[in-house]
Write the structure tokens for this entry.
Amino acid sequence: MTVSLVPPPGPQRILALAQLTNSVGDGAYYVTSALYFTHVVGLAPARVGLGLTVAWAVGSLVGVPLGRVADRRGPRGTAVALALVTGLAVAAFLVVRGFVPFVAAACAYAAAQSGLAAARQALLAGLVSATERTGLLAHLQSTLNAGLAVGAGLGGLALHAGTRAAYLGVFALDAASFLLCAALLLRVPPVPPAARHAPTRLAVLRDRPYVVLALLNTVLLLRMPLLSLGLPLWITERTDAPDWVVSALFVLNTGAVMLFQVRTARAITSLASATRAVRRASWAMFAACAVFALSARVPAQVAVAVLVAGAVLQVVSEMGQSAGAWQLSFDLAPTGRTGEYQGFFGTGVTVARTLGPLVLTSLLVQWGTPGWLLLGGATSAASYAMGPVARRAAPGDGASPGTGLATPPPAVPRAAT
């Protein structure tokens, strides 16, 4: 078990350590930020929500251009620079005391985070072979969950203390974690910039199959706010289960991903296996939605058991969908444009986090059981649509990568599968 959870020595392990350092800081940030901005900075909750929405909207727009910078200037240097900017943005939260400075710091934080994710993906693609990418991403996802769990525990200590100094300590820890992340990324070998492509700017936007694939994946990513918002609201508003179940389901999800994500990803080595994994994940997700719906109007003990069963199905779906999407996003990106394409694919996370709360609140809390079934049906439809779209985008189908338009062969080769 230990071997399966730890990447091999060398660049892969350094990337995992970098992931661990900043995820510990982020875990502490996530559980304390709302109270910090309202109690310490003194902002109204509505203003905090507005500022963060604006910030993540900015982040979704700059991910692709910053990913392109990583392709053109080299992903290691770009990732190091953006990790430093992220740390400085978090440090700025220590001194902001008004709405406008808060929004400026939040925009810098979200933009740097979006660009950093794209640059790190490009760096990973340049350091490991195509056959190793999904496995390494599974290691990084497990590491992410471990770091978030540790950070959440540290943040919980700050919440228990409830002092201004404790909150400031959390933000200082998060800022320092990104500085350490930058130092670790400097230890991996540099990846040379991609060769210049002619002449299209932001070619990913003209690659229609890849754009559709990213949009379909965004639908699947609605599972992200499900655990943090949708289920807590459902449990407290529609079931008789005790409130502590919310925390228990979060721990179950985090622990399962830490232990089984790497194992789940082992079987995914090609476009065909990736699309099969996404389809199978949709079955589990639909079943999870149906089971969650059954937790309403039953005794508390039964509701707890039903919710745990639904959470198990949901995390099985999450691990399969994540691994399949990683494989598709890399294999269908043209060689030399990994950062740009990953920057675009990663906007699905931002969109899901921005629109997901509104969508899930309407579907689950207001509609109840029909909303759960609609969510499961939308997930299944998006999952099954990804197969034909991936085949349309795959090399050797007569499509020119970066355009989605039919052209006579030979086509410019995409990344090897």
User: Anything to note?
Assistant: Residues 397-417 have pLDDT under 50 and may be disordered. The CA atoms of residues 3 and 262 lie 11 Å apart. The first helix runs from residue 2 to 5. The longest strand covers residues 399-400.
